[in-house]
Hints:
single chain, mainly beta, 1 helix, 28 strands
Amino acid sequence: MSSSRRSVWLCTLALIAAGVASCGSDDDGLNDADAASTPSSVGVATRSSDTQPGSPQNTIAASPTSTSSAEPLAEAPSLRVTPLTQAADDPVDLVQDPVSGDLLIAERSGTIRRLGQDGELSDPLIEMAVATDMIEQGLLGMVFSPDGDYLYTNRVNPDQVTAIKDYHFVDGVPVGDPIRILEVPQPYENHNGGGMAMDEAGLLYIGFGDGGSGGDPHNNGQDAQTVLGSLLRIRPIPREATYEIPADNPFVDGPGAPEVWHFGLRNPWRFFLDQERDLLWIADVGQNVEEEVNAVDLSSSGLNFGWAVKEGLTEYERPHTPWGAADFTDPVYVYDHEDGRCSITGGVVATDDASQDWYLFGDYCSSEIWAMNADAMSDGDAPVYPLPQTRVRNPVAFALDGDGQAYVLDQSGFIGRITLSR
């Protein structure tokens, strides 16, 4: 893809994601080190003044509507991004094959390739037809089963239908035709979600946006009877084109859709199952005011995150009719759209060289990256630190391999290995 085409792509996505545009130019070449840059403060329930490097931008109490003056539990880490490749074509996801150890890259155009340790990209292992009329369509996510036998993919096909399929893998190679697990028609071209995760028990989690347009015109976020605007939880039956509903899903007996695990989401582009801390992290893209991070117990179910009655911690400008008793789960962190921010990119938990764990997330438009003290979530105070860097522009995904190594992908085709140190 040409540099000019990428720039158009980036600016358009910024406009669609949040109604604002702030696009940085692509970096030229692969630089092996990040230079320090001046961090900017991030808006939360109460926003502090400009933050110095190494200082927390806020300390979040158990209730995100207030801030705490508690001392940070750990010194801020420094971020280094080591380039692996600049040659991917619109990369959106990275996973590791549990059997072969290969890193696989998903490209929005519908291709999946191996990424070698030398940065070389293979010929496509998988090619699939995808919708290309809109930049939030295409191949959006993938995840392996724990045993590595199946790769599950999330794409919007040419008929504007989200299709979840499984590919059978043998010794690191896809074998036979894919099998359809689930299909969901999309009323509009945007807000298709795309994130996927699978737990150790083989339960598949799938993120769906509210169906698109703007402002959730069909109130899907507050309708648990639709899978749109929700996080789903199902047990796929490999090779049988179907799935089971886990018995502990909150709406297994109604009144919501039985696949729904949580709802009230606008566009959960990326989420993360933190099985070490028994937390579910959801980065939900906002409309015009706030981006949000949610962190809830993995065992919690049926939570309503508030869209489109609320946007983050703020009442939405055109509040919708809530589902049921309007008992909303607030985010643990929000930031506003000042200084060109527009669209949150979540998020994985990575470990620094002092064995401290951090939830990493960024903003697509401003290219800022932050670290939240993951271990502190259980204590009720979770400092958030800016991680100055210049390498990553317009981050679209963070990922982990089987050893816990973190990676970051940006839309220019860059993929880098993350190192956190203190």
